[in-house]
Structure prediction request, 100 residues.
Amino acid sequence: MQHNYFVYITTNPDKSVLYIGVTNDLKRRLFEHQENKGISNAFTSKYYCYNLIYYEHFHQIEHAIEKEKQIKKWSRKKKEQLIKTSNPNWHFLNDEIFKS
Prediction:
């Protein structure tokens, strides 16, 4: 059986804050971030980080967690470079995920 895991980066509406996470269900996780915006003390809620701007697919959870930890250690500039490799204009990708 093939498993699916995702490392993802979300941002707030003005793209000033980045959040890096890992999940086995990207659609569900984005929905949770969006539903909780501004109503809890969680980082993504407090800073309105519910707009998906980057994601990467993995089949093994160990690889996904390793990548998440790696990205979290990077500077803001390096994270921006990663985002620009697949999403140069930083379009919000939520609709793309919700339509799939």
Remarks:
- The longest strand covers residues 51-58.
- The two ends are 21 Å apart (CA to CA).
- Strands lie at 5-11, 18-23, 51-58.
- Residues 13 and 51 are 7 Å apart (CA to CA).
